[in-house]
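Sat 14:20. Reprocessing the chain from the morning session after the first attempt stalled halfway. Input below, unchanged.
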Amino acid sequence: MPSEMLSEFGHDPWWVIGLKAILVFVVLVLLTLFNIWWERRVVARMQHRIGPNVNGPFGLLQSLADGVKLALKEDIIPKAADKAVYILAPIIVVVPAFVTFSVIPFGPVVNFFGHETPLQLTDMPVAVLFVMAIASIGIYGIVLGGWASGSTYSLLGGLRSSAQMISYEVAMGLSLVAVFLYAGSLSTSEIVAAQQDWWYGLVLAPSFVIYCISMVGETNRAPFDLPEAEGELVGGFHTEYSSLKFALFFLAEYINMATVSALATTLFLGGWHAPFWIDHIWPGANEGYWPLLWFFGKMFFFIFIFIWLRGSLPRLRYDQFMALGWKVLIPISLVWLLAVATVKAIQLNGGLDRPVLLVALGVLLVALLGLLLWPSRKTTEAPDDRAPAAGERVQAPSGARRTFPTPPMPAGGATRGAAQPLVFSQGRSANVVREEA
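Finished this time. Tokens:
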């Protein structure tokens, strides 16, 4: 039987459904343009640059100008490409990115042009599984795009991306099962309603952390942007794409960022509910169109985390990245899921004293952290931190992997400002210095 929340869907006239779909599409396109501008401005600020500030107020129209320029560039199709699949791949990637937003709740029931309707396109009893299933279709577009290009580098980038997204979808799915157990539903609107008092980001903190790590790997964003490792694969699975087809891949990446951020907001941060329990002071905070402000504020918080990571962390090695997913995140997700299911079963069969429950959860959390931080390899010999002298040959310790010394930091700390100019001593040319080095 449909629940009370799901009974609110399926009664809208056709024009309300069509207008909702158009608004979701327009919001996602405008959100992509804004996120590109915001990322360039934030990263520029972190790197002591200015960023886009010419086209439009504060440079807001720079993304639109870049998109128009990209769409009007010459479209080149490689001679060795499978033309039909080559053209179809970007469409397969971008369409699921739009469809996944159809079950995201933006707010409660509102007066929409004289008609009472939820601020959500649709909902279903398995809405979260629908999001995961539709998002998985995008992997086919990436693999087919790399294969159909007729380039070895593009194929390797597509295979990397598929392995990466499938691996981190496993950890992401396991982190969401704990939410389903607590909410008792897979419907997005019912999960938001179940967080009216306490957000699952607080109650299920390990699941929240695992999801946040997995969503960065799922969207191929730095420091997990291995499919686009320029030094190894030129440009990744879309190396041979140009013009509008490349723009579609780019659009799908930024919409997927918004999708996983919106899903994190819905499942862990109370969705459109007001933060910091503002509704206890202001009863109208969760009524009307005000919840749109809370929802987008939380979503922009996650998008800022994406940008912050890109501007501060270096790219991981591929083996390190896959080991993090299969050897750390998935085992911890399984153990945590077993604990959550046990606690839920105890509560349903008579309950357990709250102090005992909190102590047990604390011990489990400490054990998980210890498992995460446990050193994977013991060093047999202490590393030599001494900087090698000029011409000295560095020998790796016996029985250990070869290591390379790290140059010491400057005496006054990290250098700021412009780099110091190169100055050679008199009577010595640059070639002589290069030969000595």
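The chain has a mean pLDDT of 83.
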